[in-house]
Design brief:
Elements lengths: L6 H16 L4 H9 L1 H16 L1 H19 L6 E2 L4 E2 L15 H24 L5 H11 L16
Helix pairs in contact: 1-3, 1-5, 3-5, 3-6, 5-6
Length: 157
């Protein structure tokens, strides 16, 4: 069984996938998602906040776990994949929690920002939002909007 993803990353990936999908939909579908723009921007901002606050939460978790192990002299018996039972070298002090690599957090953060940017640019080019709304919404998630993103051509709605 593969290890589960950390909550912050799983949430960010889910939101990025969902919001990113909106940018590729037909204009009638886009109209529906535009109606919920404030909700999706809030979801994206909350996902980024969860990533940004990860280090603080991890320190709290680690400190509390270490304290518990120390105060209760906690020992655990590990599973041995060779004999398929309790390891003969136990019980041992549990390993300390493992931190999510910064690169993984950064990639999840960027995926959300990129998806929001694509969605906002699509809304803009389809005529649903003005430039000011694009920039305001993008700022809420830290997404960058480049001048060329907002150049209007002969794109089809």
């Amino acid at each position: 069984m593969p290890p589960s993803k950390p909550y912050s990353i799983a949430r960010a990936e889910l939101i990025a996938k969902q919001v990113g999908r909106f940018a590729t939909q037909h204009v009638h579908q886009l109209a529906g998602h535009h109606a919920n723009l404030a909700f999706w921007i809030a979801e994206a901002a909350a996902a980024i906040r969860a990533i940004d606050e990860y280090q603080h939460r991890f320190r709290q978790l680690q400190d509390a776990q270490r304290s518990w192990v120390r105060q209760h002299d906690t020992k655990i018996t590990r599973y041995c994949p060779v004999c398929r039972g309790a390891c003969e070298f136990g019980p041992q002090t549990p390993d300390r929690p493992r931190r999510v690599p910064s690169e993984d957090l950064a990639a999840a953060r960027e995926a959300v920002r990129s998806a929001v940017r694509q969605f906002l640019v699509r809304l803009y080019h389809a005529g649903f939002v003005a430039e000011a709304e694009v920039r305001r919404s993008a700022d809420l998630v830290g997404a960058s909007i480049e001048p060329e993103d907002l150049e209007r051509g002969d794109e089809a709605r």
